[in-house]
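=== Per-residue structure ===
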Amino acid sequence: MSREIVKENVELAVADGTRMAAYVARPEQGGPHPGLLVFQEAFGVNHHIRNVSDRFASEGYVVIAPELFHRTAPAGFEGSYTDFPAVMPHTKAVTAETAELDLRSAYEWLGSNAQVRSNEISCVGFCMGGRVSFIANSLVALHAAVSFYGGGIAPGLLDRVPRLQAPSLFIWGGLDKHITPDHRRAVTEALTAQKKTYVNVEFSSADHGFFCDERAAYEPRSARQAWVLTLEFLRS
């Protein structure tokens, strides 16, 4: 059931002394609701990420999408989908260490919000944010963690697998040249070896970024199916 939602911008204090803007969307009524961290692609907390946050809010989540580029870009930064080199300096500045600080700040904002069920906070991330979603699952207590085509999980983050706390959903594009089949396989093999609970889904006709309806890679059928799967995974 779709709900009326409220949208707002907040500013969070981060443990390294920086300030981080974040986009918040939540149901207008009822509660407390489950909480959801939404982690951006390489192009900022842009129209697409805000729209995805709104969609989750209309499904009953209190959503926060932190601006992970806050150390290197102005608040509200939005990169161009056709100019990846321009966003590379910002993506390179998002290290595992800075991501941990930022996601913890957003997680604590949700956990202290009276409208949020603090024992039911999940995360969803896209591309760079898929990597951050994986980091979050190794750091804070989550209900579920979803990574859409998370680059750099393998091999760089596999040492975190023993620390994963929540069930994971991995969504990949079969045509993705950025994340190789070997890297995708390494992720699932590492989770299997550690007896972690996960679901692994590859959409054979989809490329990297296929969920974003504002990118050339958008693949509508795969995106619709991935949305339904994500909602069901978060609920169960």
